[in-house]
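Title: Comparing notes on inverse folding

I've been comparing how different people in this forum approach sequence design from structure. To keep things fair, I'm posting one structure and asking everyone to reply with a full sequence. Here's the target:
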């Protein structure tokens, strides 16, 4: 109270009247600026063109006049002769108000931007909504922590010791929950990098199945046998993942064994038969057919072609049709398939008595 009494005595009535008028005028200017900015945004139709999701309007809506009022108080106080303690108090109030207002603007910006992403992904990738919400919480926590540190620093608190303590505590907590944090960051990597999404058919090592759920800690696959396979997100990203849904086409390689007693002229016609059998199918691209090698029980031909669809059923239907066609053509050309056989060559040897005579 003594500070206020000293301030009252240090200024005459004219100065106090001028300060009050300045305070009212500055407050009206701030009110007019806030209202004029809102009208200008609506007049420029920023929400419909440059900013289709209304982020600028939402950030502007976070403006609080009672946090900006200390600015008017500061302008009014500049017309008075005030004690140092009172000037310092007004300075602290102005800084705190501006820091809190800036934090509100940044908080609304983060909330609006992530809200837009969540709305867009909710229908196509619902599992990422939880991760984005967690990212939003972490971002807002960082904003308010930074604002609190600025305020404490302006209040002459020793924030160095506070930051050091928070750092040591953070390291201890991170060590205690490092596995959980590893899975959490792995889930963020999956959501942002998208090596697979829900519905993709993938293989991980000797496990294969359809992605059914992507969580903060685990990812779940539904195998072909029906059982649920659960992977830790961190372990999953350390493995080699094959995503079959991202295929554009399938490369097919198969071999056919032909009997050794096949005449040479018929043998030379086999690659043409194999090529015709493949080319007769739809949605395929023939690559090659060659006499590859001599197997112990067969003459081996290798065929390579591409199915222009990633669908496994299309591939199997195509291969089945190719096999039927080859079987029919071989039967017509009297070309026999090889069977696993062994031939024993026996040589007659005269008995010892006959050799002595």
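Reply #1:
Here's my take.
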């Amino acid at each position: 109270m003594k500070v206020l009494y000293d301030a009252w005595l240090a200024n005459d009535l004219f100065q106090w009247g001028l300060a009050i008028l300045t305070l009212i005028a500055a407050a009206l200017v701030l009110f007019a600026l806030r209202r004029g900015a809102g009208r200008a945004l609506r007049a420029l139709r920023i929400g419909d063109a440059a900013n289709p999701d209304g982020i600028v309007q939402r950030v502007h809506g976070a403006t609080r006049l009672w946090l900006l009022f200390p600015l008017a108080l500061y302008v009014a106080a500049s017309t008075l002769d005030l004690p140092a303690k009172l000037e310092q108090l007004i300075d602290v109030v102005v800084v705190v108000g501006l820091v809190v207002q800036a934090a509100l603007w940044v908080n609304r910006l983060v909330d609006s931007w992530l809200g837009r992403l969540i709305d867009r992904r909710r229908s196509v990738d619902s599992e990422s909504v939880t991760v984005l919400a967690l990212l939003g919480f972490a971002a807002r926590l960082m904003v308010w922590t930074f604002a609190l540190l600025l305020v404490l620093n302006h209040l002459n608190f020793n924030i160095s010791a506070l930051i050091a303590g928070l750092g040591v505590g953070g390291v201890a907590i991170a060590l205690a929950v490092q596995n959980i944090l590893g899975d959490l960051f792995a889930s963020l990597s999956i959501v942002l990098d998208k090596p697979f999404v829900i519905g993709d058919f993938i293989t991980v090592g000797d496990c294969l199945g359809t992605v059914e759920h992507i969580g903060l800690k685990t990812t779940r696959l539904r195998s072909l046998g029906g059982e649920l396979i659960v992977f830790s997100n961190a372990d999953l990203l350390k493995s080699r993942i094959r995503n079959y849904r991202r295929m554009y086409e399938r490369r097919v390689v198969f071999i056919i064994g032909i009997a050794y007693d096949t005449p040479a002229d018929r043998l030379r016609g086999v690659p043409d038969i194999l090529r015709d059998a493949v080319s007769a199918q739809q949605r395929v691209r023939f690559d090659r057919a060659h006499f590859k090698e001599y197997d112990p029980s067969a003459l081996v031909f290798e065929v390579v072609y591409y199915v222009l669809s990633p669908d496994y059923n299309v591939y199997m239907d195509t291969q089945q049709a190719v096999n039927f066609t080859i079987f029919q053509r071989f039967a017509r050309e009297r070309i026999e398939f090889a069977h696993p056989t062994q031939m024993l060559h026996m040589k007659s040897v005269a008995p010892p008595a006959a050799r002595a005579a």
